[in-house]
Specification:
11 helices; 19% strand; binds D-malate
Length: 325
């Protein structure tokens, strides 16, 4: 066989092995999960618990990088542009769906920039305020904020954040616009709420449960259909007289488009193992939530969820008429 033919065949064999090698040896080094919000918030809390459990399963370090800003779209854009090698992932929530409508331009194409790994959890929200805020119940809160609309401040994590969506739903429900104060995440927002620098916030139980239980912030309602075991004295919004105010913040794990199918499959299987990890189950329960079931921690389930949620929230956002510039 002539030398040219043998070198061509050798090259083809190498190329074939090179495309397969990363999956067979994967993971060979540290994996980074980007959280598109500041450290200390609910998304960060969920991700660090999942990352620790996935690290045990994968036998490699899984670290968290916080990239806050623009309601989560900066961090999502960073992962969309990352190498599709399985070593940079994104853990994001409902904001992936709402930002597709809220932002006229995004640094990524929502439905074509990512591979889907699986759903992670769905977290209820709580309507909370600084502990010395005057109103003592949801009816009193609604009356108070309507009468003081130009001074009451509502914290959120930027347009596209879950806290922004919930705040927007609240203001639409009471037909009153309030002064919003954006942060890079509801971790830093909670610091100001505890310090009394901001009046109220709608945030996930993964960030508010301990403070509510400790009496360092005031809770008026939960956005879940039923009361939560961890917050038995906090009424649902429905009970408290605000009908239709139900929202659950689902979270998904993504990889950049082009990440190989067998790496995505390995990650999905690791996510499913992590969501059964006892520490994840126990800590999620303490914070008012639960891991997604195994059947939802799959690429197909996350794809379907994202597509249906984009369609669901578009009319709600269009009705509110609030968009990012
Ligand atoms: C949000 O409000 O979207 C996030 O929960 C903020 C955060 O995780 O810090």
């Amino acid at each position: 066989m002539n030398r040219l033919l043998s070198s061509v065949l050798a090259g083809c064999a190498f190329a074939l092995l090179a495309t397969q090698a990363p999956a067979q040896g994967y993971p060979e080094r540290t994996i980074t999960i980007v959280v598109p919000f500041a450290a200390g918030g609910p998304t960060d809390t969920v991700t660090r618990l999942v990352a620790e459990a996935m690290s045990k399963d994968l036998g490699q370090q899984v670290i968290v990088e916080n990239v806050g800003g623009a309601g989560g779209t900066l961090g999502a854009g960073q992962v969309a542009a990352a190498a599709p090698d399985g070593y940079t992932l994104l853990l994001h929530h409902i904001g992936m769906a709402t930002s597709a409508t809220l932002y006229r331009t995004l640094p990524y194409d929502t439905l074509n920039a990512f591979e889907y790994v699986g759903l992670v959890t769905e977290v209820p929200m709580t309507l909370v305020a600084r502990k010395d805020f005057e109103p003592t119940d949801l009816k009193g809160l609604i009356d108070y904020v309507k009468a003081n609309a130009d001074t009451v401040t509502v914290a959120n994590a930027g347009i596209g954040a879950a806290s922004h969506l919930c705040g927007m739903m609240f203001m639409s429900a009471i037909q009153t616009a309030l002064v919003t104060v954006p942060y890079k995440g509801t971790g830093p927002a909670m610091t100001d709420l505890l310090g009394g620098q901001v009046d109220m916030m709608c945030d996930q139980t993964t960030n508010t449960t301990k403070q509510i239980q400790g009496g360092t912030i005031k809770a008026y309602a939960v956005t879940s259909p039923q009361r939560l075991d961890v917050l038995p004295d906090v009424p649902t919004a429905e009970e408290a007289g605000l009908s239709g105010f139900q929202v659950g913040i689902w979270h998904g794990l993504y990889a950049p488009k082009g990440t190989s199918a067998d790496i995505v499959d390995r990650l999905s299987k690791s996510l499913q193992v992590a969501l059964k990890d006892q520490n994840v189950v126990d800590r999620f329960a303490e914070l008012g939530t639960a891991p997604s079931p195994e059947a939802d921690a799959t690429p197909a389930a996350l794809k379907a969820k994202l597509e249906s949620e984009i369609a669901r929230w578009k009319p709600v956002i269009d009705a509110a008429g609030q968009y990012a510039d």
